Amino acid sequence: MPNLFFLLRTLLLLTVIPFVKAQDPYQLLRQPGEGFASVVPGRVFEFPRDHYPHEKYKIEWWYLTANLTDEDGNDFGVHWTLFRQAMNAKTNQGGWQSNQIWMAHAAVSAPNSFSFSQKFARGGVGQAGVERSDAGGFEAWMDEWLWRAQSSAPFPALLTAGTENHRFELTLSANDKWVLQGEGGYSQKSNSGQASYYYSQPFVEISGTIWVDDLPFEVKGNGWLDREWSSQPLSGDQAGWDWVSLHLSDGSALMVYQLRHNSGEHYISGSLARKAGQTTFLGPDDILLTPVSETTLELPGGSRTLPLEWHLSLPRLNIELNVAALRASSWLGTAFPYWEGPVTVEGSHHGMGYLELTGY
Questions:
Q1: Structural fold of domain 2-358
Q2: What integer pLDDT is reported at residue 21 of this predicted model?
Q3: Buried-most residue among 86, 264, 298, 329 (CB within 10 A)?
């Protein structure tokens, strides 16, 4: 009976997604994580252990974005994400009694096309997860989408995934210098106590193949991996967030995000990382993030107006940037709808990156 109850509950969750989309799916991220572990300052991160699931926390993700170029200089964007969510705060019994649900997204932005796909799975039955393989290597997967590393760390690795019209096979490499976001990995999201544990690898070197309608393109470029887990990522008065990660012309990697409050007093944070390992934490007094223009997209479910061009100012670091979407057509009409796509950077530095907009 517990197995049947869980299966029915999971099916209910997945079948009500169209209804939830009509409401506000991000409300799930505002609900208090009663019974789950709390995110508090002072955590000591331990690798490779922390590359794997933290089931005492309600929600968690592994998130890769990549700016890639083919042999003719054409720009491509790829992102791949695996999400874990616990249905309740009880100990995971595994197998058919697992209380874990998984969701995965893949998207490809090509010069003349964009497509995305989403997948869902329950935990415990081999359909999705993040584990060490029998050979001891890191593996993160959902059905045939697979991130497979040679060691217990995520790099070096091979990532294969795709959508209805696009697919990719990418070789990923990076050093073992992880950027702990926020204050030593404690990333505050509001003044009301919401926070996550958050670390990144901003310097992922990527090469491989993207197929667009079965036509192959050899690509290479830079990627950004984010790892984050929490029990309540948003406060009750936060509609969503704006997040940007940039690879700049001086070799640095810049990340800025703001959590939008209904009051208009948004919570903002970020970091500037160097490949050699130095990282500068950026607080609210260091960042000015201002939308420059808005674009209205006509979508199957109706129109959406989004800020796809931003001015980013870091006066203390003498950085002034204009960040603009490379292509407007990067809307993911998934269960949790959002815009995610490649951006160009001009100003005191040049570069490429990725922009994510949620809650619009």
A1: AttH-like fold (2.40.370)
A2: 42
A3: 86
